Amino acid sequence: MLKLSDFDFELPPELIAQAPAAQRSGSRLLDVAPDGLADRRFADLPSLLREGDLAVFNDTRVIRARVHGRKPTGGRVEMLVERVLAEDSARVQMRASHLPRPGGSVDLPGGARAEVLARDERFFDLRFHDTGPLVEWLERHGEVPLPPYIAHAAGAEDAERYQTVYAAVPGAVAAPTAGLHFDAATLAALDARGVARATVTLHVGAGTFQPVQSENLSLHRMHAEWFRVPPATAQAVAAARARGGRVLAVGTTSLRALESSAGEDGSVRAGEAETTLFVTPGYRFRVADLLLTNFHLPRSTLLMLVAAFAGYARIRAAYAHAIARRYRFFSYGDAMLLRRAEAGA
């Protein structure tokens, strides 16, 4: 049985991408095929797909989820919104020299105030006063929530590039990063190739960056994320299957939404729900045939997911190749295209 340490690897710090490529589709693409590895450009992706295939994108939109405030005593507080619960409430993570307790409050920009309702381990439930609709207030006063491994403060470039070109439904606090490589030209090339497109919505939470603590993977508690599969997407998957097409999940979030909505026969059910799906090697995939994804953190649940999808040995080889060839890692990094491994691979 695989353990947490089986998903560790040494990554030279300079390979952690601190800024996006000059052009979205100018990133590199590692083609991880059953017969070997091929170094390509992201713009090559449409040529690797077939007429009749279906690409499923996560259309979540990243909100300006990082906010700075002060306690009534003057102490500084940094908040990261994990999830907007209603127009006046949210679940957040907080950093402060002394964290406020339930019943306490935080003074916020624009004359607003947050009241602490409850705490559940690292999360706080807050009610916001004098903000109006919370997402709109965050757009005015919040910052782009860059991942912890990006060293610079969020700027104007990040506001554009840490967002997919097709983002539509506000609610994520981390980008579905495989989608960051797509531009209008690449989407048009998919259409010209005869690749159908569909969307799901999964609001990526800050928990995606939380490390796995236990060497025994069965003890890990996965954070919950809200997702929705529209009826048109469930129909598109069924139609692709009927015509012999493959399903490409654009990113691990799209894959988790599809797999969380799938029946034992692989049919996708429309609807919305919470998912805590934790995919490790041995999982039986029901929907996705192909996965487009970036390179993930050592010892992370996402690395475990891609190892389950493509095969543990194949992923180890792909990551070793990527490091040797100086691919760029993590959110602003390069991408790879994976094929689903046969059961037991």
Q: Can you describe this structure in just a few lines?
A:
This protein has helices at 134-141, 156-161, 184-193, 231-242, 252-260, 301-310, 312-324, and strands at residues 28-33, 36-41, 54-58, 60-62, 66-70, 76-86, 89-96, 105-107, 113-120, 123-129, 169-172, 196-202, 225-229, 247-250, 271-275, 290-294, 335-339.
Overall description:
Helices cover 20% and strands 28% of the residues. It has 345 residues and is an alpha/beta fold. It has a 9-stranded mixed β-sheet with strand order 2-1-17-16-14-3-12-13-15, with helices on one face. α6 crosses α7 (312-324). The longest helix is centred in the last third of the chain and has 13 residues, at 312-324. The chain is globular and about 65 Å long. The chain starts with 27 loop residues before the first strand and ends in a 6-residue tail after the last strand. The model has no long low-confidence stretch (mean pLDDT 95).
CATH topology of the largest domain: QueA-like
Radius of gyration: 20 Å
- Estimate the mean pLDDT confidence: 95
Q: What is the total domain count?
A: 2
Instruction: Just give the CATH class of the largest domain.
Output: Alpha Beta
Inertia-based shape: globular
Write out the CATH superfamily name of the largest domain.
QueA-like
Biggest sheet statistics? 9 strands, mixed
Question: Per CATH, which architecture of the largest domain?
Answer: 3-Layer(aba) Sandwich
Described by its quaternary structure, the protein is single chain
N→C terminal distance = 14 Å
Number of helices: 7
Beta-strand content: 25-35%
Helix and strand content put the structural class at: alpha/beta
* Strand order in the sheet with the most strands: 2-1-17-16-14-3-12-13-15
The total beta strand count reads 17
- SSE succession: EEEEEEEEEEHHEHEEHEHEEHHE
